[in-house]
Known about the structure:
single chain; about 425 residues; alpha/beta; Rossmann fold; 2 domains; 7-stranded parallel sheet; 6-stranded parallel sheet; 14 helices
Amino acid sequence: MKIVFLLHNAYAIGGTVRTTLNLASALADHHDVEIASISRHLDEPRFTVDPRVALVPLVDIRAYSPDLRDPAQARPATDFPAEDKRHRQYSRLTDLRVRAYLARCGADVVIGTRPGINVYVSRFAPRRALRIGQEHLRHDAHTKQLRKVLARHYRTLDAVVTTTAADAAVYHARMKLPGVRVLPVPNIVPAAGVTPSDGTAPVIAAAGRLARGKRFDLLLEAFAKVAAKEPDWQLRIYGGGKQKDRLEALIEDLRLTERAHLMGPHTPIEDEFARASIVVSASEAESFGMTLVEAMRCGVPVISTDCPLGPAEIITDGTDGRLVPVDDPHALADAILDLTADPDLRRAMGRAALESAHRYDPAPIVTKYEHLFADLRATRLQRTWERESTRAKAWLRKRVRTWTRAARSFRGAGLSHMRLRRAGTSNRKQPAA
């Protein structure tokens, strides 16, 4: 079976890139797997690509690329939805290259990896292929305008795969998709390949984009309380982003310059997690929570805000980590202090985390995808009937409403005409004064 992934940019660093490469590698054990990278900005990918997985760049945006001089590259995309926030990174050349690639790829399964790309899959994937849209974000993270576009195009997919059961439930409740399977399949997080943490280093680690939603400011505020009580512990934050200057200023304001450090991006992050004894996430929202599982793979207990949607499905509170309320630096600090003060508890939670992380081994997740492929093939006619009958019923209801309104208008016009005639007759019968 040939399985094709459409990915925004396989040469970049990002959670979706990493998880797609993990899944592609695992599927390559039994299938022919190809990744179409819609953009290419570097000579080589930042992450290692399994040599069994073919990587096909579609639009080359490196400085010397002739694609930059193609007139279509200067025109905005019309197939990629304008409501997707990445629209400005797409062009008419992108649209044309994606269409041409999907027409010739010969795939049995085509998998999109973000909302706008799922629209490409919906519209242009070969009709014989299974069309699957992955949602690495959350339903509620999309704007109302984008959700409206997705509701229209997702109806022609075979399946929508979310990373959490909670998000799948939201799609079931808020986006009616007859004939489309909507189900959760978590991301693959392979074994770390590092010696697990022994829980003795006085280091707290965190990782992610330096963006507002990750709330590293809240973590620093919580760590200020920890630092006052635990003079030996340090905080290391890994990642890059627009909030770097703001966070550096906050570190200085909180007088943490010797205790809290912005370490910059680091790949693979597991090396650094294994050198820590606690990993913390203070996010406002997480569609999954890759860093949490990566930390658990290193035998490190994790403390996370109980934000929508992923952490509560990953962490068993009090067993392999802790869940604390969102936007509460005091609760976050108290949870960290509970672990810094109790090395036995840290080590016990670290062992439980390492065991719990096996849920994200490649084998069970590949099995879920293969069962999904088989189910989609076996139910294709049934689901097509469900989709078309629902569409026909909706058309009929719309026509009935139109006919009903027309009939009411006709009756209203007829009654008005009769009243006018009666009024005219009555006026003619009145005797002259």
